[in-house]
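Issue 218. Parser rejects a valid record. Input:
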Amino acid sequence: MQVHPEKSASEQASRKAFSPGVQAAGLAGFLGASALVAWLGAFATVSNVDGWYVTADKAPWSPPNWVFGPVWTLLYTAMAVAAWLVWRSRSGQSTRALIAYGIQLLLNLAWTPVFFGLYPLLGTAALWIALAIIAALIVSVTVTVLYFGPISRTAGLLLLPYISWLVFAASLNIWAAFHN
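Output the parser choked on:
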């Protein structure tokens, strides 16, 4: 059992819940950040998914292309809600957790243009670089879950499907790197 010293009046005041308007704006901000990452990643995907990727040797377990959009929409929404739950908690650990979240969001943003966009320029090397990025992303999201969980169990749980999807995506990336 941990014993916590009494919090100062200023610390207690700073931990008051955000107003409903501030919470709504915060949620909109996290959803907007996720949408921006998705939108930026779509540029590389759209121009190449119907290009080199059409004739690429894909893993036998690769789902049809139309599956990726809905899955990523759900994952980006869950990621944003998870980050919002941590942010609104105003926990003393929120800053560290949200920095981890930001790092994984940047790694997520980097993977798509490397995998889809650099392949026409670098060939197979781009797929290996993308694999390194997705491996770092899996580690980063795992760390984020470990930071989010103690602050908000729901936030940590919301990221678990994301890790599962990333491991699946990494398996597709590995196949592509070995066979293209």
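Fixed in the parser; the record now loads. The chain is about 80% helix and 0% strand.
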